[in-house]
Amino acid sequence: MVLKTFGWSFAVTALGLVAAVFYGGWTAFGVVAILSVLEISLSFDNAVVNAGILKKMSAFWQKIFLTIGILIAVFGMRLVFPVVIVAVSASMGPIEAVDLALTDKDRYQQLVTDAHPSIAAFGGMFLLMIFLDFIFEDRDIKWLGWLERPLAKLGKIDMLSVCIALIVLMISAMTFATHAHQHGGTHADKAETVLLSGIAGLITYMIVGGLSGFFEDKLEEEEEREHEAEEKAEREGKPKSAVVMVGKAAFFMFLYLEVLDASFSFDGVIGAFAITNDIVLMALGLGIGAMYVRSLTVYLVRQGTLDEYVYLEHGAHYAIGALAMILLVTIQYEIHELITGSIGVILIAWSFWSSVRRNKAIAAAEGKAAGSDDKTEVSSGV
Fold it and tell me: Do the Cβ atoms of 39 and 293 come closer than 8 Å?
């Protein structure tokens, strides 16, 4: 099971490390290995959240997620995205941006760093909306009940998550503008860009998330109708509209996953510059890490881990909330990647430990109940 799920990840790791040695020797080998670990540590919460969505999809779309999806994740976000950022921010063509990335790495790194505020605003808002919509929803299973119960009641207020997200964005943009003004106004013009980028992240979430949710609801309605008319469906065959609906639902859920992965990858791409400004090594290292995150997502789905450890999804969403706030804070202040990665790992480890304790408590209660039943049967027999 492990080899089947992680086989491609192992193969890509071997090829990536060999390519690194040929490209830049053993130093490059070490850089790629470090980048891989960085990406996995920063994106473990991504895998847990992805698994919660992917388990609703068919085996076909899970395979699409691992094939076409990984091409988008590795080549799109880890290789093409930084180049596009440079091309847009520096008003140059894509070919010129690639040439700059290969020939003038310091200048390339500087341009990506300059674009960080708008990147962080977009990704931070997208992730913040995911977190807010999660904590404001009333769920049967609650991890931190003292916090989640009152938040679920507040969640009944329409558009509350959008209002909070916009307030957070406004505070971030105003803080950025004030700081820039106090330091000579060198970045004052970018405060507007931060605001627009954050709004773009919010709109992207609402469009993609709204469409995937809409088609998911339609799919559930279709499945209910099919269940009620099962005998008729068997005689006449599966309705064509249901097949189309499944395709649309799966497509938009897949699209949602890709945007989600893109938002998660922002901190990895920016953090990678603390280790290297070589675009080739960056793509190799982050690409290997992205493969493991993808494989881990599928592994969690096929093992039913989220069903067994019920608080994992909660921990991952709290990690998303922490990452969203960190991204928004990094618009103005620098935060070390070690802190970013550690917070997510700690929250997920805590939720896993809580899940294990819950399972043990349930097993102990069931064992005690079974023992009481046995004693009752013996007493009755006597």
Answer: yes
